[in-house]
Amino acid sequence: MKYANRMKNLHASEIRELLKITERPDIISFAGGLPAAELFPIEEMAAVSATVLKEHGEKALQYSTTEGFQPLRKWIAERENQRIKTKLTEENLLITHGSQQALDLVGKLLINKGDVILCESPTYLSALNVFKTFEGQVLEVQTDQDGMIVSDLERLLKETPNVKLLYVIPTFQNPSGKTWSLERKKQILAVANRYDVAIVEDAPYEELRYSGEFTLPMFSFPESKNVIRTGSFSKILCPGLRLGWIAADVEVIEKLVLIKQSTDLQCNTFTQMQIVQFVQENDLDAHIARLIQAYRSRRDAAISAIKKYFPENTHYTRPEGGLFIWLELPEPLNTTALLEKSLERNVAFVSGESFYAEHPRYNTMRLNFSCMNEENIEIGFKILGELVHEELAK
Ligand SMILES: Cc1ncc(COP(=O)(O)O)c(C=O)c1O
Predict the structure, then answer these.
(1) pLDDT digit string, tens, across residues 185-219
(2) Which architecture, in CATH terms, is 5-41+286-393?
(3) Nearest ligand 1 atom to alpha carbon 233
(4) Per-residue model confidence as pLDDT tens digits over 171-187
(5) Alpha-carbon distance 116 to 119, whole Å?
(6) What pTM does this model have?
(7) 5-41+286-393 with 43-281: one CATH topology?
(8) CATH says 43-281 is which class?
(9) Ligand 1 atom, smallest distance to 242 CA
(10) CB 95 within 8 A of CB 243
(11) Looking at the predicted structure, is the pLDDT value of residue 13 above 90?
(12) How far, in Å, is the centroid of ligand 1 from the Cα of 239?
């Protein structure tokens, strides 16, 4: 088979391969970014599915518009306007198959072969793969505890002529768990505007805050005309529904609609109607509050287990929300080698190297804390901590 050139840039993701192993019931897994399945509103979903089919069956099983089910777009617009102080209407929204498809559509919209995409170091692996699919070149911008470092971004923008896009996850970042300060968001947006570079602000975790203060996303600032925002039902409801959205200027949405039309015509009509029925019959905020309560307790268990079992000179983030803690272990420890050993002891995590666009750091790891209960977090982190001590003692 004569494959397209873009295939040269694509390799099987370590995480996808790992997720196959972690499906084994005997594995304690901190690997995937999985929400807690026991908290899915299964009975409520069963009830709304029956209602949609009974009352709107013909519509639910029929083709529908590419933009997405109008009542769903309207509901998202109104909810976002309240939460993040925007003035969206349904015209500013396109429904997508998760925020992953949102990234793919934005890639098709913006990236020519050889265009440069700047992202945080480290960043979300599957976004890197999207940018590679469109034969973009991804460069890393260094980060500190407040977000992207402004001087590093300016340096890259000065040195690099063809920067097309800045891809960022300012709230509870995947994989680092970091959250940008408000000041940093203002500064980065100002720099991006000065160089006329579009920003994709990916926000799938934003509603899962366990501590600290909410600050507005860049998309909400008056100067945000070049910002595209991606959102998702995956972490606040269930990822298996595969529904998310893009919020942007009407002109951008109109172009994205053309792209989505040729990609898959539309998202699943039935699923979109299920979500609308769900939010009519149930209190989504109360559901999210339950998730927050459970995940906060798991995050706290994870942080205390790190303090208890890992070497003192381990650096780790203390995420204010989201699903991940990022660890930097004492060097020369290599977490890819460590992973083989931890799998032998039935514990999985993701080594950090795959999250770097350019310069992997081999002593890093990402630990997900949302899908294991406190007891398994204690057992699993103890095993990992012991392995790290053993490796360092060699
Ligand atoms: C930063 C980020 N963006 C996008 C996604 C894609 O999520 P989904 O397609 O389920 O909305 C993920 C999934 O984990 C993510 O971590």
Answers:
(1) 999 999 999 999 999 999 999 999 999 999 999 99
(2) Alpha-Beta Complex (3.90)
(3) 11
(4) 999 999 999 999 999 99
(5) 10
(6) 0.96
(7) no
(8) alpha beta
(9) 10
(10) yes
(11) no
(12) 9
